[in-house]
Amino acid sequence: MKAQYRRDMEQSYKEFTQPKEEGFTLIELLIVMSVMLILMTLAVPQMLKLTKQAHETSAIQSVRTIVQAQLQYNSMYPGNGFSCALGQLGGDPKSGAPSSQAAQLVDVGLASGNKAGYTFTITNCNKVTVNNQDMYTSYEVTAVPNSVGKSGDRGFCSDENNRITFDPAGGTNCTQPIQ
Length: 179
Known about the structure:
Number of domains: 1
Strand content: 15-25%
Strand order of the largest sheet: 1-2-3-4-5-6
Shape: rod-shaped
Largest sheet: 6 strands, antiparallel
């Protein structure tokens, strides 16, 4: 009996003095990973939806900016009428005074035609010739998503009447007014 008691005491002493392994078990790690995956499957689609919504809001505001720049351009250069190129509404302020070719009315990023997942263009320009000079009397601004469904769902349009409409399919067939 004494021998058994002694062996038990030695065993207890060894267990007490040896460091125990610390860390997570495999099952604990799998549970944590499962919870993380479930949270990600809920969060990622919502984040993508919010990103698309932000891009669309930015596109609408950019179309408004271009239309306002067109009105200013028409006022500054009445002999030219409206601009038929985004580059003419842009321009670097460091390069000198504004001109009809670089009016410096919109920032360089928007004047390049790409911003926040959308491509912007000025199309459907109608011109008349007055005193041997071409003058643009109308235009249409379009904004289409670079990737329909990812960078945005709707395309946006506006013209010299400053009414913004949208195409629910993401193109330039804008028939529905923005609410």
